[in-house]
């Protein structure tokens, strides 16, 4: 259905309003803005894993026709103190990890800048480095907080004692390697100075944090900084905070007094825009013979950089999922000479639920119990960690619905019993959860004399369809056709709004849009006579409303099912079917929602089977730094993937009754696939990804 024919609003499968602009090239991304006299910048990355820059020989580069400047730690503009140390680029000669930027070449053309940067002589004083994570590091410590401000350690009862006394026990360790975001659009920015004003087009998940960082770094009032992030080609968390490229673009533009654009080379993304840190996760589950959990322990060891602390909160979902009288969840972190890890889709939940849901499958095997029934037995009425009631929790309903759709009842639970020629066939299940997050937002809505309505909110659409869903919310509140609503997003010139992250965007922005449009509808109902030429406007700020949210544990839940075929000749694992069933509040747009669920599940498939990175201990850098070496799933890897949801009403969320859906799709997928591989082969693999070099030797040893 074409969007111009849609007259219903929330709940309809409206097509993306910007879809035609994207496929015709009208939608312009950060690097596609080319002001007059625009120059190009190319960064120079450190080639030592730790040390100092002792010299940068700029003479040869500056002699190249078209080179405008070479910025180094000694001549780059001085910046204000950064809240995020990764933004303090070219401010001193320190090299905290390989890939840290040590120079920037600015030239008339991209080709000239790249060639000059590639030939720039840089010398270093290298120092010993350490990039190796193990689970027995004596220098590991428990942080006060992991990401999101959650406590680094939580303990309830006596988990070790209860585990030792439990009739049935599982004590296992799971490993997840470093993972990388790799959005389709690399991190890019175009910056120009207009007198003492800075205007930036940035590929970012939130222009407000970028504006704040640039204002601090360049000593400007925020009102003199404009950041536009109107179209963004994916982020997966890596664009959730300001990154060095936007600072370099603004710095270079001020230095050469011309607009400057920069697009980071994909091979450098792993070192400068964050990644999912590796985790070593020990799970100890103690249960009664009927499956009731007595004790749950989840201890995570991970790393952070020496630049700043970032702790993957992988034990946190265990605090939410299953009831037990005794619980221990803790994070242990080691500082290494590695690039700073950061947000990646479902941080904490994706690696943590892989380990927990795999361990639950092992416990079901030890009990001789169906894994769905084990989860149902331990489904709590209140959140185990906080004791708060759930605003809604329909995990068991997702499991039952998924089992019916998947044909779980016909499954032979015995491992390695189903074979098709050289293929061993197996099925697996895992649960998923993701918190409902809300942030204050503002928005405005204007009714114009021509019968159209303009909604303004500084939301960011990173490919989720936010524009369309916000227009649907507005049309619903205004009681007008969707075709009469025009959405303006993605600029700090618009009413302030939070970034697109934590699956919180639509819930936060939509609340403000709903409030502004509801107010406008009431004003229009009272208005008599023609509208003024500039229309009638209403604004909303949800700061107070979000603070007054009732005391509930608010989460989305889901169930993932997978069928795999494992080739006994090659060790290759192929996913034949994937099914996800979700309880995620009111689904505002089935078309864009299904796209998000399927995209998350596809990313989870990559996490399970192909995606990984390796830190070279000798050189201190990632070996897999591009899409030729870091393998993401292709269409051929996803032959049959389905997403469904149950009707869920929750009055404790926001006016739309919606929960975030962008991340929960990845959360349980890897565990479901891993559990299916065990069911197919009888071999339990506890380290991702399940590549042939890992699978085939294990199969051979059993034959």
Structure in words:
The protein is an alpha+beta fold. It is 27% helix and 23% strand. The strands form 5 sheets. Strands 3-5-1-12-9-10-11 form a 7-stranded mixed β-sheet. It has a 5-stranded mixed β-sheet with strand order 7-15-14-13-8, with helices on both faces. Strand 22 (555-567) and strand 23 (573-583) form a beta hairpin. It starts with 18 loop residues before the first helix and ends with a helix.
Topology:
Layout: H1 19-24, E1 39-45, E2 51-56, H2 59-62, E3 67-71, E4 94-95, E5 101-107, H3 110-118, E6 122-126, E7 153-156, H4 159-165, E8 168-176, E9 188-194, E10 197-202, H5 207-217, E11 225-228, H6 244-256, E12 260-263, H7 266-272, E13 279-287, E14 293-305, H8 318-321, E15 326-336, H9 349-367, H10 371-377, H11 395-406, E16 419-420, E17 423-435, E18 442-447, E19 453-456, H12 466-478, E20 485-488, H13 505-526, E21 536-541, H14 543-547, E22 555-567, E23 573-583, H15 590-609, E24 641-645, H16 664-667, H17 669-681, H18 692-702
Parallel strand pairs: 1-12, 10-11, 14-15, 19-20, 23-24
Antiparallel strand pairs: 1-5, 2-4, 2-6, 3-5, 7-15, 8-13, 9-10, 9-12, 13-14, 16-17, 17-22, 18-19, 18-21, 22-23
Helix pairs in contact: 9-17, 12-13, 15-17
